[in-house]
Amino acid sequence: MKAKVAVIGGGLAGLATATCLADSGCEVDVYESRGFLGGRATSWPVSGAPNAGLQPESPDESELVDNCQHVLLRCCNNLLDFYGRIGVADRIKYHSQFIFIEPGGRMSTMRRGCLPAPAHFAESFLGLSFLTFHEKIAVSRAMGCIPSEWRSRTDLDRITMLDWLQEKQQPQAAIDRFWYPILVSAVNEKLDTMAAAHGLQVFWLGMLSQSDSYQMGLPSVPLRELYSEQGLGPNIQIHYRSPITGISLLNGHVSGLESNDRLIEADYYVSALPFERVQALLPALPIQWKVFEHSPITGIHIWFDRPVTNLPHAALLDRTIQWMFNKRGGRYLQLVVSASRCLTEMSKQEIVKLAVRELSEFLPAVRLASVEKAHVIKEVRATFSAKPCLAAFRPDADTIFPNFFLAGDWTRTGWPATMEGAVRSGYLAAEAVTRAAWSPRNFLIPDIG
Ligand SMILES: Cc1cc2nc3c(=O)[nH]c(=O)nc-3n(C[C@H](O)[C@H](O)[C@H](O)COP(=O)(O)OP(=O)(O)OC[C@H]3O[C@@H](n4cnc5c(N)ncnc54)[C@H](O)[C@@H]3O)c2cc1C
Known about the structure:
The protein is an alpha/beta fold. The protein has three domains: 144 residues, FAD/NAD(P)-binding domain (3-Layer(bba) Sandwich); 124 residues, D-Amino Acid Oxidase, Chain A, domain 2; 89 residues, no CATH class. The longest helix has 20 residues. It is globular. The chain binds flavin-adenine dinucleotide.
């Protein structure tokens, strides 16, 4: 298919659109406002970051740190397909166990045993020390309802996950210590605000449908290093520092994009921007903008003067900090708080103090260590809030303008705001472009479940 396509935004949605269309023979130009790719799934240089003793000390050297730890599960099949297309699939390292730590340091792990799906967690689940026997029975009962209800119930988008858990008579401790840590990080929303459809989707696709779908993939390089022009291929031209500042319309079509005082023309245009940016550029789109809200994520990066753990990662129970990732040698830890509205008003120093205090309850070695450096990234607009009744308002890739299409994690992907959702949106937008060009192609890979 020979066509010239302009993609706005070099995040995962834009890059996924671009790779599919370039593979179909289009000439693709990606306009990205920043000087690098990846959007929210990227890395920043932090200067003077101690290098944890793995390289010669050089206090002035800057280090690329991820915006925040990004985690994928093996069920993210479009994201994995995209990594394959750009040649970086081997840079994702899979972890086969979830580790939970209680304050005081007691640890439990969940991993696949010898039973087939959906019973593959049975043995390790029964061994979890942070749930009582009664709580485990209650959780198992609720999990047993997921495979049938996820497909058959029609009200799951209208009720919250907490409504569903209460309907299933889940004890408070099971909600707080099992459902909450898994779901708040997967959907980036609290249980009383998240649509039950997304909660059940995470458990069905990620935990129950196949015995390896839960495996957690972590990039072994800084996120930004996953995206290179070489990996994207020769038919894609990236225009860095090229913010699109206007979209021109003529006779019901998009006639061009404005950037840095020039007009960009193409046959087809794809916006792969977050919703608030699209609204600013093209408020005429018939989208109920008001229903879209943000949910924040806070990433806390701490470099200690000595190793404080040898665990690769862990969910930290009953405290503000939800997850810990060991980024290097147990000295550099990344801590994540999803749906972190409680931290929005706190200063960065207060957040670091809280994080170190809480960490010392889980990892005793923290009490003897000193913090060499800390860095807090509060992403107030991290994702859209996956609240009930939003699904119907998420727009399709096709718009009222026949040569203009939408991608982005907030569009109608069926997924919450995730890297998988962003790539799915890109694949769907690319399919829409090929349909408009009378050369339809399929790129989307269906869910495993
Ligand atoms: C802190 C944090 C942690 C997260 N953790 C996870 C996780 O663990 N797992 C997971 O799957 N997902 C996670 N996510 C969500 C995931 O990062 C996003 O869903 C996904 O990256 C969104 O991709 P996108 O392409 O839709 O949007 P974006 O990544 O926002 O891309 C939009 C791009 O457009 C560019 N842009 C903006 N305005 C213009 C303009 N006017 N002209 C040109 N370019 C423009 C931006 O610079 C950006 O590069 C996390 C997000 C955050 C913020």
